[in-house]
Amino acid sequence: MRGGVSLRYGVLVLLAVMVLVPFAGIVLAALHPSGAQLDGLSIPDRWSWETFALAWERGNFTNLMRSSVLIAVFVVPLAVVMATLAGYGLAVLRVWGHRTLSFAFVMGLTLPIEVIVVALYFNLREVGLTDSYVGVILAEAALFMPFGVYWMQTHFSNVPEELIEAARIDGARDLVVLARVLLPISWPAVTTLSVLYFMWSWNQFMLVLVMMQDPDRRTAPSGLGLFVGQYTTDIPLLAAACLIVIAPIVVVYLVFQRSFVSGITQGAIKG
Q: Which stretches are transmembrane (predicted)?
């Protein structure tokens, strides 16, 4: 028994080291002066915080971060609301054709963005939604639907039917059941889905690169791709730019850590 516990902890420690060591290397590299030559993990002789300011200025991250925040702020609530309503309709209301629709959403999980991005570009161009925040927001919300609907449908399927029936006996209609009965006990699942949507929206690269032709309106990850091409040999500057891009994700995860882990654990136990 003790050997099994020690083995599990050993594996967890090994995985943590495999994740944290490269991250520590990026942080240490970013603290070197711009243009410094690095060889593996090295502690800087002088901590150079100016590298972050220089990366922010040269990478035009003021506009890029604004675009990323704007898109994520609209994508997350829009996609979460639609996924919640669809999951409720399929799992609880069991609308006509719910089995076929559920299968279609599951199949949507296997559809990579690379397959549809070109066709999506031409379709949105016909309605004037390329090089537009609205086009990117709608496209991302639609692309995130398969997982969100599957996630919320699975969650609602595990809610005791007696709870829903009791609310209906009291005269509650469908939307009241969802808003006042199911959502209060579904916040871990909703929060987890929101955090995942934020991470996916923030990290979206190819879709924004294709849809947005104006460099000032692209998001931070897509701007980082161009930044890497310009400053390939300046490792400290590249490391600082990478940390700037991933910082919002780390902050969001730390803020919602308990709800996120609770939602993941709840889904794992119920699944």
A: 12-31, 69-93, 100-121, 133-152, 177-200, 235-256
